[in-house]
Amino acid sequence: MAERFADVPDVITRLRSADYLADAGIAGVVFLADRLEKPVLVEGPAGVGKTELAKAIAQVTGARLIRLQCYEGLDEAKALYEWNYKKQLLRIQADREHETEWRDVEADIFSEPFLLTRPLLEAIRAEEPIVLLIDEVDRVEIETEALLLEVLSDFQVSIPELGTITGKQRPIVILTSNNTRELSEALKRRCLYLHVDYPDLAREKDIVRVRVPEIEASLAEQIARVVRSIRQLELKKAPSISETIDWARTLLYLGRSEIDPKVIGETLHVLLKYQSDITKARKELEVPEVPAVPAAADARSAS
Questions:
Q1: pTM recorded for the entire structure
Q2: Which of residues 302 and 227 earns the better pLDDT score?
Q3: Would you call 181 helix, strand, or coil by DSSP?
Q4: How far apart are the C-alpha atoms of 162 and 26, rounded to whole Å?
Q5: Residue 130 CB: number of other CB atoms within 10 A?
Q6: Can you spell out the DSSP letters for 99-148?
Q7: Which runs of consecutive H residues, i.e. helices, occur in 155-240?
Q8: Among 245, 117, 250, 137, which Cα is nearest to 187's?
């Protein structure tokens, strides 16, 4: 298989061209995943760029991104494949009218035209370059992880009616987890491991400047400092990197070039999504309350 990256610096440079600022740790794991042909399990808090990493790799390698979004209740029919039962039933009814032998009917209805491919099987059968993203794998039940083991080990799947289908290529596979539960040892053993945390001050400032290129360096640094201070609080949900970028754009739209307590108070809802977190941040950062908007009835009576 053709090697996608020349070395670790090449990974850093090419991911940056997709506006993804990878440090040496991230780039090193991506490089080894390419060379060793092993999946990467990326763990870390929500919103630190785990999913974006897979998207950036697909973009810079010219690969098609296939995404399996995991959720509670995900099963083989939604992850691998299922048979088109309605189409099969119609064929059975049609063949019954012609008195076709059941043996022939069965061979017909369990064939390619009746197979519905789902993301994992689609990735296995793809002939073009692929990046397979298995997103939020920690949301599925432990039993469902068994569906992934054959795919991750040999990049193949066994379909009883058709046999074993083996991939013609070995894509880069990224699994993401928000650590909502412990994953099985069998799954971890098949993967390289990468932990992605919130960026440090300098890197978050650089991320803001890359994603919001029109922003001044001084404002980007102020944003990174305020967000870092907020993340140090005990919150239900700390601000993600994407929310930091949204805040930066918000301040530009409002014409702000400096951050003061009043500005933070007016825009804190862009960073925090729970009222309890907003209240705590206001108290800790000594941010003034935003005046309440009067109700319509109050406004009419005042007029």
A1: 0.85
A2: 227
A3: coil
A4: 39
A5: 23
A6: T--HHHHHHHHTSGGGEEE-HHHHHHH--S-EEEEEETGGGS-HHHHHHH
A7: 185-189, 201-211, 217-231
A8: 137
